Amino acid sequence: MSRRAVVIGAGLAGMLAAAALSPAVDEVIVLERDDLPDGPEHRRGLPQGRHAHLLMAGGLAAMEDLLPGAGVRKRLLTAGAHEISLGNGMVALTPDGWLRRWRHEGPRMVTCSRALLDWVVRETVLTHTGTTVRKANARALTGGSRRVTGVLTAPADGAGPEEVLDADLVVDASGRGSRLLRWLDGVGVRGIEERTVDAGLVNATRLYRVPEGAGGFPLTVLQADPYASRPGRSGMVMPIEDGRWLVSLAGTRGGEPPADPDGFLRYTLDLPHPLVGRLISGAEPVTGVHVGRSTSNVRRYVERARHWPEGFVVLGDALATFNPAYGQGMSVAAMGARALAEEVRRSGPDAPGLARRVQRGAARPVDAAWAVAVGQDVMYPGTRGAAASPADRLVAAYTRRLTRAATGSYPAAAALWDVTSLLAGPGRVLRPGALLSTLTGPALPRAAHPPLSRAEWRTVHALDRTGG
Fold this sequence. Notes:
Elements: E1 4-8, H1 12-21, E2 27-32, E3 54-55, H2 57-66, H3 72-78, E4 82-85, E5 90-94, E6 97-98, E7 108-111, H4 114-128, E8 132-143, E9 148-155, E10 163-166, E11 169-172, H5 180-186, E12 194-197, E13 202-209, E14 219-222, E15 233-240, E16 244-251, H6 261-269, H7 275-280, E17 284-285, E18 290-292, E19 297-300, E20 312-314, E21 320-321, H8 329-347, H9 354-377, H10 390-406, H11 410-420, H12 432-440, H13 454-463
Parallel strand pairs: 1-2, 1-11, 2-8, 5-14, 11-20
Antiparallel strand pairs: 3-7, 4-7, 5-6, 8-9, 9-10, 12-19, 13-16, 13-17, 13-18, 14-15, 15-16, 19-21
Helix pairs in contact: 1-4, 1-8, 2-8, 8-9, 10-11, 10-12, 11-12
């Protein structure tokens, strides 16, 4: 008897879920209501698709595990993505000073447009598995509270009858707009705890052509300050494919970046350091300013449900979404798909209790990313859905001391890299070397200026049209 899996959503989480399931079932069908582009182009179903995305080392490792031999990293780099060393390929201003650039490279992250990343992953999955994509709307789950048995679908254009698509396993990877709670209610599953923490972050992004001679300029990040009792404001210059810089600004409630080009530049110059503004003042813009507001942290604690149906798994943004400022959402989705693959490989796709075990496994990377995102966001004034508790303030105080130490201590910097890259859990910062560095503080003096080489400073001066 053949076995079928149905995945709702053809975004990153959905395609990685299909990769996880394809070795264990006879057929994987991915349902997608939107038209999928033939190349690396923006599509409607990604509200944050035009803004900055970082693929952390932990997320890339999960993708490579899900598609062994497919060379996801190589495909991304061949398509134009960049690989950035956290140790020396990035210039970053934290609330407690500039991070040093070390001889040690540290973990690497991949930078490119979200459109390119989704396209490369989708093409890799379709090439290396038997997955098929069907254009359709998922309307409801079928089955009951004990077991989900399929999906009720309708044509994406609304013209035609509904159809039941039976499945041995259904995965909701339909993203931030998932109708999960309504679908569960339809099969008699209720009482799922949901939490939203919203700092009111607004993204404003514009693409620029990389100026001649600036192709090797490091990723530049000016981080927001959650400890200053005022709205957070940040900026980033990130290299992406086709010789472009993706310049993304972000501000929490009360400090939102503007949508007009002149205001965009003024905002960069008002950041804690004018480096981003000085760089882009002499660069050629190739797009207008795109603004995004779908940035709240939302978590559905399905792993805590008293009763959970067999045959149904939730992954990616349908399970948890994070403020994109922290760059962990894609990696968390990949690690959730890897948890699915490991459990299916261990016990088979229809083993009793599989769905609940997958949800508990997927919750672990969610826990780590949620702690980072919400632990910072609750500190901003005007955040809705949560206030900083004594425990939050204790964690924030330690995190701040660790970050301050990382400006001049390699053990502290290495711990910070490992946690933000999702190569290790939060316990990494309590290991002896990191703990000692955090308690004693930075071994080297605080840098007064951005840690740029002479050649990089010449690039800044050549581009600067601000008179700075």
